[in-house]
Each structure stands twice: as structure tokens, then as C-alpha cells.
Write a structure and sequence with these properties.
Blueprint (H helix, E strand, L loop, with lengths): L36 H19 L4 E2 L2 E2 L1 E4 L4 E4 L2 E3 L4 H22 L2 H6 L1 H17 L2 H9 L4 H26 L5 H9 L5 H21 L1 H7 L2 H4 L10 E4 L1 H4 L11 H6 L10 H4 L20 H13 L6 E4 L1 H4 L9 H22 L4 E7 L6 E2 L5 E11 L5 E8 L5 E3 L3 E4 L4 E10 L7 E11 L8 E10 L3
Antiparallel strand pairs: 1-2, 3-4, 4-5, 6-7, 8-10, 9-10, 10-14, 11-13, 11-15, 12-14, 15-16
Helix pairs in contact: 2-16, 4-6, 4-8, 6-8
């Protein structure tokens, strides 16, 4: 009973806020130029896709822009095909095929899309090329940024940013040219006659290209692009990725070119001379020797840089190479495997469905709406009449003449226009009455077809039989 309970001091302790931020600021990456086989392949693909991107809006088909994605008019023109909101399945198939093609390539060869064909990578290397030509090589650019502003630095920086803006402006005009007539776009923009929204989007995409390729660069790949985050779900131990061979390369260390392989091994050194060139040429600034990282875009720049060093040292190439985890472990890569077969099967299936959907697509759509105010009515001549509203959508690129008829009734009489001309892309609404002698039909509901047939001489005859119902209540 004489024991006392100790009193615990619970006075709150004031926590001091850290004086430094809990994150590290981004360090600018000065990418070193590199030469090699993979660099030549990357430049080849970059030029090919850049040329395709620049040429496509200027192609003409039957006197009009061959590919025009007119969002305002809700129509996508692709040569002889015009897609409308009703053709959503075609657009969906295109996206599905593109997605599974990306999955298939990623499972087989990693992020080669990012390294060789992605627009962000292509435009980033274009901007880096201007940097090298105007400001000099990597070391010169680093020294230039450390210098205080003088005339030499001012004109080099000004010329570089002017070149960047011109590339961004041409890119933006070409991109917007996919959504509006590109020849008028260039004329109206440079003569200051374009509309507000047209000028806004050109300036907006110019700023996006200038910021992404000039300043954000690797941030787009490592933080904003979702592909870097979910790519691991498609990788397996047989996926070809840019990898460093630690068994052959470790321990790292500098050495003289005159050292023989026996002398190198006696010192416990591997083939890696720790020159750090693989880091200097990497557009995302990573060290591939630390293993597979989500920042790696598989551009192969480090492969070319390392092979150049290995050639000078007289060592075997491909210390860094496109290889698989199985090969690094001494095994053999399995090209044919269940995951790859699955992606290939779905890709082939979706491609066939896309081709089938386009091949069987009819550039005519008919919609029938019955008059709901009355089921049927008797005319002055004693005929039984049903009223309909016929909507004809001409999804072709030419004006066409259509003939309307009725199938499924003995001797139907049509009151209304039976031959109409519908302009390209137009939805023509036509009120129509169908009458029949009551002695020729039975009481109840009968399925009939309102047939719309194209009479245009510029294309093959098209016929669409749209089902509807004819009602006779018997009064």
C-alpha cells in the first residue's frame, strides 16, 4: 500500500521543421553524343516516322485532304472511308489493335517503342541535336551554363531557343493540320487571319512541344507516361531488354590499354573500365549497371557507347546489350512462349475483326421511327395507313440519289417522296406513309421492310432493308 505510482511527463515536444526540403531537386542531364549501330537504327526510324507525320496531312485524294479528322463536323476522313460517330466500332478496333501490338512488342523486346519510335524521344533527340550544333559537345554545354552571361552565351542561347520554337511551331501546325485543312491553316495562321480557337490550339501545342522536348524531357518518360509504370506486367525472364552483364563486367576499375587479359584478371578486374560513358549518353540519366530500372527506355545509347569503349580496349563487345534475364544467367532465351503466343493470337484476331468491319462497312445507314400517336388509320379511299419517319444517313464522300420502297406487303402504296438526293455526310429526314388494302392483310402486327437503294452512278448500287412493323387493328 506504500507503493507510489510514477508520474510520466507527457509534455508535448515541439518538433522542428526541417530546414531542407525532403526531396532532391532535379539535376539537369547533359546527354553526350554517341555513334553506333543502334544509334543509326534509332535515327532511321525517327526520320521515317517524322517524315510520315509531316507528309500525311498534305496527301490529296480526289481533290481533298486524304486524312482529315474533323472533330467539329464529327467526321474522320481516311482516303475513301469516312467515319462517323455511328462507326465507333472501327475506331475502337484501331485502338485495341494498337494496344495489343504494343503489348506484343513490349513482351518480346521491352520498351523499344519508347527508345526508337516514341514522339517524345524523337523530338527530344532533335532538340539535343540543335544543342550540340549551337552550344557544342557535352562538356562545352556544361561550361557554358556555368559561365556568367556574355555576348557569346547570349547569342548561342537565343539561337538555340529560337530553333526550338521554330521546330515546335512547325510540329504544332502539322499536328493541327490533321484536324483542319492544312493548306488553309498555314496561310491563315501566317497572315493572321485564323480564328481565335485555331490560333489558340497552334500556340498551345507549340508550347507543349517546346516544354516537353526542351525542358521536361526525361520527366515525361519517368513521371508522366503511364507506360513506364505498367511495363513490368508484360516483362518476363525472356524479354529482350538493355542489360549489363555483371558477371563479365565486375569488378569495375580503370586500367591501361596495354594491360593483357591475364594482368587484368590478376588484379580482380572485370571488363568494365568504369568510364561512366553509359551514364553520360543516357537520355534519362540512369546507370544501367545498377540493373533493370523503369526509367530505361531501351534506346540502346549505352550499348553503342560501351561497344565503342570495348573496341578501343580490344575486348569483346556487348558488355551492355539487348539480352534476356535467362541469357545473363547462362541459359537460352525462349522466343516462343505462352504469353507471347497469347498476345499474338489476340492481336491477329483483333486485326482480322478490324479488316472485316471495314470491308463489310456499308456507307449508308437507315433509321425508321413509327408514329406513336396512332397505331393505324383509315384513309378516304378505305386503305389502312401507317406513318413513319425515315432517316437516311449518307456516310459516303459523294452526293447520292436514293430510292425508297416497301417490302413485305402485297400491294403497298407510298405517300411521300420515293426518290431523294442526300448530300455527303447529310442526315435526310423523310416523312412517309404506307397504305394497303385491308382485304389483303390480316389483323395484327406484320413485319415489313423499308428499302433504301442508291441510284448514284458514281458508286455501286447500295441497298439497305430496315425492318419495322405495320399494324392493322381492325377497328
Amino acid at each position: 500500500m506504500n507503493k507510489k505510482i510514477d508520474v510520466k511527463d507527457i509534455t508535448p515536444v515541439k518538433i522542428q521543421k526541417p530546414t531542407k526540403p525532403n526531396y532532391s531537386a532535379r539535376s539537369r542531364i547533359y546527354v553526350r553524343a554517341v555513334q553506333g549501330k543502334l544509334e543509326n537504327i534509332r535515327r532511321f526510324f525517327g526520320l521515317i516516322f517524322l517524315g510520315i507525320f509531316a507528309i500525311i496531312p498534305w496527301l490529296q485524294y480526289q481533290g481533298e485532304q486524304a486524312i482529315l479528322l474533323d472533330i467539329a463536323a464529327q467526321r474522320f476522313t481516311i482516303f475513301s472511308i469516312t467515319l462517323w460517330p455511328q462507326d465507333l466500332t472501327v475506331v475502337a478496333y484501331i485502338f485495341i489493335v494498337s494496344a495489343f501490338a504494343l503489348f506484343f512488342v513490349t513482351t518480346f523486346a521491352g520498351r523499344v517503342w519508347c527508345g526508337f519510335m516514341c514522339p517524345q524521344t524523337t523530338w527530344t533527340f532533335i532538340y539535343i541535336w540543335f544543342e550540340e550544333k549551337i552550344e557544342g559537345a557535352r562538356n562545352k554545354r556544361m561550361k557554358l551554363d556555368q559561365r556568367s552571361m556574355d555576348f557569346d552565351k547570349f547569342w548561342r542561347k537565343s539561337l538555340k531557343h529560337f530553333s526550338w520554337i521554330m521546330v515546335a511551331l512547325l510540329t504544332s501546325l502539322t499536328f493541327v493540320g490533321y484536324f483542319t485543312e492544312i493548306d488553309r491553316l498555314f496561310i491563315d495562321f501566317f497572315t493572321f487571319n485564323s480564328s481565335f480557337w485555331l490560333a489558340f490550339w497552334v500556340i498551345f501545342f507549340t508550347g507543349c512541344t517546346y516544354g516537353n522536348a526542351g525542358f521536361m524531357r526525361e520527366i515525361m518518360c519517368t513521371h508522366m507516361c503511364p507506360y513506364a509504370r505498367f511495363q513490368s506486367a508484360m516483362f518476363d525472364k525472356d524479354t529482350f531488354t538493355v542489360s549489363y552483364n555483371p558477371t563479365r563486367g565486375e569488378q569495375r576499375g580503370p586500367r591501361s590499354r596495354k594491360m593483357t587479359q591475364d594482368e587484368v584478371k590478376s588484379k580482380g578486374l572485370g571488363d568494365c573500365i568504369d568510364c561512366n560513358l553509359c551514364v553520360q549518353v543516357c537520355p534519362t540519366g540512369i546507370d544501367i549497371r545498377n540493373g533493370l530500372q523503369y526509367e530505361c527506355i531501351n534506346c540502346g545509347a549505352c550499348v553503342d557507347a560501351c561497344n565503342g569503349v570495348m573496341d578501343k580496349m580490344g575486348y569483346e563487345p556487348n558488355l551492355i546489350s539487348f539480352t534476356s534475364e535467362h541469357e545473363l544467367a547462362g541459359g537460352k532465351t525462349k522466343i516462343v512462349r505462352p504469353k507471347l503466343i497469347g498476345y499474338a493470337f489476340v492481336l491477329s484476331l483483333m486485326t482480322c475483326m478490324l479488316v472485316w468491319d471495314i470491308a463489310t462497312r456499308v456507307p449508308l445507314e437507315v433509321d425508321i421511327i413509327r408514329d406513336r400517336n396512332s397505331l393505324d388509320r383509315e384513309t378516304n379511299e378505305g386503305l389502312i395507313e401507317n406513318v413513319y419517319t425515315v432517316k437516311i444517313l449518307n456516310k459516303s464522300q459523294q452526293d447520292k440519289v436514293f430510292e425508297i420502297s416497301v417490302k413485305g406487303l402485297p400491294t403497298p402504296q407510298i405517300f411521300g417522296e420515293t426518290s431523294v438526293e442526300v448530300a455527303e455526310g447529310e442526315v435526310y429526314t423523310l416523312p412517309l406513309s404506307v397504305a394497303v388494302d385491308p382485304e389483303e392483310i390480316s389483323v395484327g402486327t406484320q413485319k415489313i421492310y423499308i428499302s433504301v437503294r442508291s441510284l448514284s452512278e458514281t458508286s455501286e448500287s447500295l441497298v439497305v432493308d430496315e425492318p419495322t412493323t405495320f399494324i392493322f387493328t381492325g377497328f
